[in-house]
């Protein structure tokens, strides 16, 4: 393995990473574990890919990114619909409470009407 800084290594184990750049998608390489290390790039793990493999991997990456964006958009839409649903449920609960209050008020008015007719009948027949 060779370093890009003239062969200087820090002596620590290298981590195997994968490149996802458009020029070298999917190619694995060794990199120093130390952040901001003088080692930098250490070497390739595997052989270079053919042009067809690069094209296929890039197409798959684009498809994955597109699907992730669509999925994120759908999640945002679901969250927005959930908020609207919660608002509608709240409004429905408020309207149910108002409806119950109006039913109670209607029952009281019917009772007053019946009582007033009853009193009217008593007054008429007592004369």
UniProtKB/TrEMBL annotation:
Domain GRF-type as annotated: residue spans: 10-46
Pfam families: Zn_ribbon_GRF
InterPro entries: Znf_GRF
Top-level taxon: Eukaryota
Keyword hit for Zinc-finger: yes
GO molecular function list: zinc ion binding
Keywords: Metal-binding, Zinc, Zinc-finger
Protein name: GRF-type domain-containing protein
């Amino acid at each position: 393995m060779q370093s890009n800084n003239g062969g200087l290594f820090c002596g620590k184990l290298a981590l195997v990473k994968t490149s996802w750049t458009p020029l070298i998608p999917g190619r694995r390489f060794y990199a120093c574990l130390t952040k901001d290390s003088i080692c930098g790039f250490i070497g390739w793990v595997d052989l270079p890919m053919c042009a067809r493999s690069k094209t296929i991997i890039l197409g798959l990456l684009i498809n994955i990114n597109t699907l992730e964006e669509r999925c994120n958009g759908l999640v945002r839409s679901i969250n927005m619909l959930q908020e609207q649903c919660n608002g509608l449920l709240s409004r429905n609960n408020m309207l149910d409470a108002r409806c119950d209050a109006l039913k109670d008020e209607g029952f009281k008015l019917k009772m007053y009407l019946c009582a007033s007719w009853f009193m009217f009948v008593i007054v008429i027949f007592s004369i």
